[in-house]
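thread: overnight batch results

M.L. [08:02]
morning all. the overnight job finished for the chain we discussed friday. pasting input first so we're all looking at the same thing
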Amino acid sequence: MIELGLSRISRLVQQTSLSWQAIHIAGTNGKGSISAYLSHLLTSGGVRCGRFTSPHLVDRWDCITIGERVVQESLFRQIEAQVKQRDQTLGIGASEFELLTATAFEIFHHEQVEVGVVEVGMGGRLDATNILKDVLVSVVAKIGLDHQNLLGNTIEEITREKAGILKRGVPCVVDGTNSPAVITTLQDRIKELNIDATYTHPETPSEHSPSLGQLFSKLDLLPHQQANMCCAVSALKFALPKLRPDAGVDSLLPQLSNVEWPGRLQSISLAPLIAREEPILLDGAHNTQSAEVLRQYVDRRLRPQAGNVTWVIAASRGKDIPELFGSIIKEGDRVVTTAFGPVDGMPWVKAVEPEELATCVRSFPGIGEVQSFGKDIVAAIDYASREANGNPLVIAGSLYLVSDVLRHLREVKTSS
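M.L. [08:03]
and the structure it wrote out:
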């Protein structure tokens, strides 16, 4: 279960030397992409950089990278065991995420990173990562309604929780594409703390950096990708002078075109898992904002090819299914429902029953065939692939579904 608060993590890391500086990132959507951009830019600039994001994608340790490489499993397990032993000895009763956070922070110290790019797990004010003290810059990405049972029922309440990472004396970067209610709430907190703030505006990238404007003109980016890049570049402009006074931000920006963020608008071949040569779109969209991003991508890049799309979907329990899928699944689309399996380290996360999900989707106006495949993900994808017959196929609705698909693909490649 999820228990927000800083008392347990404070005791857990009391003996940990937080010898590195941090860039702290909160928000509902975009945190992971901004983290990936920043980690890549810093590493390209010669800074020894660690990154901690959540949840993991395939293995529990792949949420921690050092110099853009996933931490070695042996090191992860060694330090995780030490952290768990400390938790048991002191009788702390830390949550899974608190244990993971402490493990990541100790790995950063062990690997002598100069800066850790750290993504908030949930919220901000009471999130375990908010134990950070030596922060170079705080970043607030796009904020939307999510986890209302823990963070608040209104966008203002949720924003105040996420603004809890802002600290006196630490500059911040805010995604300027946020709604007026979010911006106003953040401005109140920023004024209260009397800190420097940059509000990013992706429609004028050259204001952030001349090189960024040139990059946008070369790359075919969606609006959210531009917004996330602007946040990363603005944060780098605060952080890099403190880490490498002689380094130039502009010279590093071409590296942004090389950044990949698996599981988010990822075009991938699933052969030999299934007999399909054409790529499949894999996306972990799991809330209204990320679903809107997926809709924009599908409508712009995939529907012009064939009109209708075939979907393989799953969702976590508690999600508003019509809100999540209503805008992306359209008249004439085929849908196959399935369910992801147990989530390592998060036993409280459960999938919606596939037939329940199918019943809900069937109520959407004009939807084509809807088929439930239970929990057999591979069978669901194989059937959907045959139905798609080379036309667009999208797997979406949950990052945990994406994780299971990538895990199945790795297993079949390893055994072949």
